[in-house]
Amino acid sequence: MSVRLTTLTAALTALAGFALQVSASEAKAPTLDDAAGRYDIDGSSQINFKVGQVGGGGISGKFTKFSGTFQLDRGDISKSVVEFALFPETVQTGEPRIENFLRSTAVFDTASYPKIVFRSTKITRTGENTAEIEGNLTAKGTTRTEHFEATLTEWNRRVIGFRIQGGVYRTRYNMSVGIPIYSNVVQFDMMVNGEKH
Amino acid sequence: MLRNGPDAFGWVTILLHWTIAILIAGLLVLGYVMTRPDIDPVLQFDLFQWHKSFGFTALGLAAIRAVWWLAGRHPASVAGLSTPERHASFAVHILLLCLTLAVPVTGWALASASTLDIPSFYFNLVVIPHLPLAKSAVAEALWTTAHAVLAYGLAGLVLLHAGAALHHHFIRHDAVLVRMLRNRWRDG
């Protein structure tokens, strides 16, 4: 008797929880509209990249020092602005010689160009939780227009998180070394978290 | 004409000899230049890739040369060589043959064991797989040392070999050098 009661209680609780979830998502899904405000990109973000190589595999790495802000406009996401800067000196790949090579004049030339900067120029909503970010990327003294896909992954009153993905042609930034052994395209897959200002 | 004769080299031997000789000379210069510490990093990367492609070419030709040497006939020694000279010549030639194989193989091994894991993309045409070696800094350092020691050993032997050829030509006025330059035997 008590076993059946426990089972029933558990089932009811699960059902109630499900119903609560459904109503919560219907009433207040974490959409871009609700997230308006200014956020500072925090250190929990992951700025990951990968450059494929011929025959499979490639160089995967991340940047550990960066900063930036999201300014999300209430009601009109296209008026939002993303600013981001990273310090290529902090590149990590797990192989110090590759890191030093990336810092050298062959790639980032961190001594002359310590910062890589992105500033959005146009944000277009592409779905309930997705947007395309167009903006100017400045690296190694060259500025070009790039596109990234953003997906809202987390949001509450304090924190917002996006997964931001996009490919960048490195030849545009005078970083052509190693082509065609290494791909021209640098694939970024970033988890960018912001804390409300 | 193509094969070696009783006392002359055929065109295959002559062509392989000089192609491998030019490759070795070029690879030694490349290998030295590309490992200078103050070299431009882009130039260094590109020179390494050229070195690998030409190195694999040298390995392939040296393998053909070794098979040709094992399968074919060897012309008789030039008249006037003493027994110790013939033995020394034979030893140097065997060592040269072995090193033309061993030096590129150790280079292949070092590229394979390197934690850099840079693919060998033969003249940007085809990927040559790495040898099945565990990648570690220790293994890479070991193969790098082996490659350098054997390469400089080969360079020394090439100087000895070339010096002997010049000595035979200019001092002893025999056919040692000339018969590696032109093919003058007729099938009897």
Overall mean confidence score, pLDDT of chain B = 94
What spatial order of strands do you see in the largest sheet of chain A? 1-4-5-7-8-9-10-11
Order of the strands making up the biggest sheet of chain B = 1-2
Helix count from the secondary structure assignment of chain A: 2
Estimate the strand proportion of chain B. under 5%
Q: Give me the CATH superfamily of the largest domain in chain A.
A: Lipid/polyisoprenoid-binding, YceI-like
Helix content of chain A: 10-25%
What share of the residues of chain B lie within helices?
Answer: 55-70%
- Reading off the top of the CATH hierarchy, the class of the largest domain in chain A is best stated as Mainly Beta
Largest sheet of chain A: 8 strands, antiparallel, barrel
CATH topology of the largest domain in chain A: Lipocalin
What's this entry about, in short?
Chain A is an alpha+beta fold and 197 residues long.
Structural account:
The complex is a heterodimer of chains A (197) and B (188). With 197 residues, chain A is of the alpha+beta class. In chain A, 18% of the residues lie in helices and 48% in strands. Chain A has helices spanning 2-28, 96-103, and strands at residues 37-41, 46-53, 58-63, 66-72, 81-86, 91-92, 116-125, 130-139, 142-155, 159-169, 182-196. Chain A has an eight-stranded antiparallel beta barrel. Chain A is elongated. With 188 residues, chain B is mainly α. Chain B has one domain. Chain B is elongated. The N and C termini of chain B lie close together (12 Å). The chains are: A alpha+beta (197), B mainly alpha (188).
Topology:
The complex is a heterodimer of chains A (197) and B (188).
Chain A: H1 2-28, E1 37-41, E2 46-53, E3 58-63, E4 66-72, E5 81-86, E6 91-92, H2 96-103, E7 116-125, E8 130-139, E9 142-155, E10 159-169, E11 182-196
Antiparallel strand pairs in A: 1-4, 1-11, 2-3, 2-11, 3-6, 4-5, 5-7, 7-8, 8-9, 9-10, 10-11
Chain B: H1 11-34, H2 41-71, H3 83-113, E1 120-122, E2 126-128, H4 137-171
Antiparallel strand pairs in B: 1-2
Helix pairs in contact in B: 1-2, 2-3, 3-4
